[in-house]
Design a protein that fits this description.
alpha/beta, two-stranded antiparallel sheet, five-stranded parallel sheet
Amino acid sequence: MSHWVVVGISGVTNGGKSTLTKKLVESLPGTVKLINQDDYFYLEDSQHHVPAPGGLMHHNWDIISSLDMERMEKDVLDIINSKIPEKSESYFDRGLTPHSDPSSSSSANAVHYHPVLLLDGFLLYDHKGLMDICNLRFFLTLTREQCWDRRKSRVYEPPDPPGYFDHCVWPMYEAHLKRIEKMPRVVFLDGVGNPYQEVYKKILDLAKVMK
């Protein structure tokens, strides 16, 4: 059994997943690795792509077949099956909070943490293998208006054609959300709020090595 704590950070496009994972990478104690699902999109000329709905001359980038999930799963398994560093960092169990200074505590209270692997991706849980691997499953949500307000200021490559959000992005997300709501152990988070403290604490509690 792997000693890695695997954490899924999923949810709506532009929901704050990358911002959250960046803060977690910077603040979690011990060994932390990050795999981003966006790095696994097939190239634009790949035969795996299907047309976007609505008659748009554009690929549907919001479906799991647009992603090389076999390669992503292999990379995840390579990490969690790899040898854990012999020397893990020591931290101090005195109400450790983000950005606290471990050196200010007594070494008598030193504790260790399992390494953490963060998975960032909007369709993580549509892949059963990855969903099953995740010890913690988080899902960020936004309303349609909130999502569009963020999405319209983003630049994608290739760029979103007019109507792509209405015909593809949001309908695909709504269908995805219905599937997620039926899945076990998924913690839903408001993408407009600041879920960092809640997520950080849950990871820390699970990652702490029990003696």
